[in-house]
Amino acid sequence: MAFDGIVTKKVISELESVLIGGKINKVFEPNKNEIILGIYSNGKNYALDISIASNNYRINLTTTSKPNPFNAPNFCMLLRKYLVGMKIKKIYNYSLERIIYIDLEGYNELNDLVSKTLVIELMGKHSNIILLNDKKIIIDSLRHLDSFSGSSRDILPAHEYTMPPVEKEDFYKTSKEDFRFEGFLTTSIPDKYNGISKAFIHNTLNKLGISDSNYSNNDLNKIYDYIKEILDNIDSNNISMINFDKKDFVISLAKTDEQLQANFFLDDFYKQKEDNEVLVNYRSNLSKLVLSALKKITKKVNNINSKLKECEEMDTFRIYGELITSNLYRIDNSKNVQSITLENYYDNNKPITIPLDKTISPSYNAKKFFKKYNKLKNTLSIVSEQKKEATKELYYLESIIYELENATTISELEEIDAEISENVLFKNTSKNANVKKNKISKRNINDEYEPITYNVDGFTLYVGKNNKQNDYITTKLGKNEDIWFHTKDIRGSHCLLKCNGSKVNDNTIVACAQIAAYYSKAKLSSNVPVDYCYIKNVKKPSGAKPGMVIFTNNQTINVNPKKD
Fold first, then answer.
1. Domain co-membership, 359 together with 469
2. Which residues pair with 460 in a beta bridge?
3. Could you list the residue range(s) of the whole structural domain that residue 19 is in?
4. Beta carbons of 449 and 295 less than 8 angstroms apart
5. pTM, whole model, 2 decimals?
6. How far is the C-alpha of 42 from the C-alpha of 40, rounded, in Å?
């Protein structure tokens, strides 16, 4: 992320405009990497979000509410003890360092005027939040560091605070004549100067139309002037935050009418980023759970297939037994016979060699063959039913995987999570799976379903986003005259066209089939077969898993998937 020294400078400038003189009235610690300060200033309440997460480190005002742990962590309790009731006197940093100092002043329990300094170090995985007394002695910090753990300094209570070593040059102390480089500018400038990111330089080169590798001294002068103009306007509304390369942001020369544009840009940016991370992690955890169950069922199917393969030879054992029994009068019934050759009256009396157990007589061998035949016959009956059930379970698990692949919001994942938690397939695996459980309201689980809706030629088409919604639109929402769509033999959503007693023309059928094809695993294919029939011909068997139905009197149409 491009939360560099220039961004830090702009954020501090905006914070100074609204927070100086404000009083801290609340302190929260939503997670181990984040502190939120509630500040009352100039008749308004502000929330200052400070995050030291290695990939999301930042400081900015926020309007996003976050869960407050029932039991406050130790550092949160310490900040409440020392900071609540104190006023903000100054917010600043030095040069383009990503270290922010917040000077505070207030009265202690003895009514003595005291001062404290909150230091926020935003340095990737080395980020920290440190509270100092008026003598710059550390009271405590969110992370404790010492030389034994590889740190260049001790960040421990009762130790004197020292700044981290600075290894790069200060741009403020550089003249235009000294601003000279060789090689790629997007690496050489950030490598030389503190607080200037690669994304900022990349955006600068794009804005000025300068090549990263082929440039002149005049080009370098233009870059120097641009950076200096940015820094000279840091307190004005002539610069603002902009998106860069979709997944990043930079400061740019762009006018804005918003007083806190940079702060709330960052708030929106990081909220979306963190929501996406939660979505990805939540989906990943649920996928692990489903894949674990899928692995078990696949192993079960493989075992069933092995048993079925054994059952293929059961008729051979029956024939062996019958041939021996019918020819006992011709066979020496003594032991030590390894095999016998007889005419197979099931195959035009062709000779057949039957292997025998020489430790028992041929007559007992015949009984052994009949016993094996009966055992395999019973096995075939049992495992055939087991395979039907296992196949249904595999189909169901594959439908869950399809839903997870297509889920785009936390609420959709919560609905899938709720469906999984109710299914016996996941009872054993869920004990060992580290699945993050989000709070799911009863409304999401039981009361309301929100399938995707389309207006097709004046008719409403409902598209299920998961198995529960598929069941809802098929068994609850659909009436006899409504038309049901589903891709033929391909995993996909149930689609229901509400006809309301009106006749539906062929063009509408085609449009609905195209949408059904889009909401399936074949959405990137062409000429996809889609089955459709009246909803009265769609039945859900008793005990069937969510989303599982059977249908009759259907027609099939081949279409190219289309979302609109």
1. no
2. 455, 498
3. 1-165
4. no
5. 0.71
6. 7
